[in-house]
Amino acid sequence: MQESLFPTSAPVPFVTRVTLRNYRSIEQCDVVLRPLTVLVGRNGAGKSNFLDALRFLTEALQHSLQQAFNSRGGIAAVRRKSTGHPRNFAMRFELALPAGRSAIYRFAVAARRLGGFVVRREEAIIREGNGSPLASYRIVRTGKGDDLKTLFEASVSPAPPAQDDRLYLPIAAGFPAFRELFDGLAAMGFYSLNPEEMRRLQTPEHGELLARDGRNLPSVIARLQQEEPAALQRIEEYLATIVPGVRKVERITHGGYETLQFSQAVKGASHPWTFEALNMSDGTLRALGILVAAVQLFGRKRPVRLVGIEEAETALHPAAAGALVDALREASAHTQVVLTSHSPEILDRLLNRRGHPPRRPCFG
């Protein structure tokens, strides 16, 4: 296997451990993540909700907690439903940062009885490679309703004030010590690829980050062709092992719109035939989207630190699953990859290479 296309000083895995409490269907889980992690388990076990918890954090940092709740139907749809009616949920992350540094980031959010929500607790701790503290802040809110008391401690100054309905990390990122933590968590990408959207003619855009459903794939392919042609070539090589005969993929335009065009070898033809995305199978489009998601650059300067992909094997022939795992394993040398899967072929490929079963702490 050739050397990684994206050498980086950032460690992989980025997120080394995730603890969740009362998030959607998950009462509690504690998961150690590797560079390439496959979450397996029966339907309804919480695999997709685990990925959604990470996506929730990214959305809350990119936009706001309110927007992250709104896109999921409100806090009542996010906190776990049970006979005990828990009013709060919590997340805790352990992370590896460049230059040997490490971080712990955690927060807990509670629903207000008369509507709305409050961040009950938030804490970030950055440590040097030798374990000594570099920077930290801690926010704890007690009380009910409008009678809230806030404890706010920070190692940096002057520390701007904190709002009770927003995470503080985007504000703390104004200090260099917290910037890498914020950048990494806010740049994670999560994908549930939709071939129907990928077939539609699209309006061209900058293509810096693949959309969750893959609709802007032509723009991302065009950017890779211009800025990272070696990466696009590697994608095409792996795509050819997953979909035999595919030779090239490129963006083409129709008026003010764009789509993808595939060049594919056809038996008996002296030259490859071309097919637009409209004529390609679900499996081909999903495979291409997964490969692009794993190697894309965010902001044209740094890799996406973690990519989450739901049911990567959907619409793929079982024989192609092994090639997909090989591609994702190579990608995981520079970008952490987390998959949900029901595919025995994917698990067999991992078992054959690793020699031991994947951990299944809360999805068994």
TrEMBL record:
One of its GO terms (biological process) is double-strand break repair. Residues 36-348 form the ATPase AAA-type core domain. InterPro entries: ATPase_AAA_core, P-loop_NTPase, RecF-like. Signal peptide: none annotated. One of its GO terms (molecular function) is ATP binding. Pfam families: AAA_21. Coiled coil: none annotated. This is AAA family ATPase. It comes from Nannocystis pusilla.
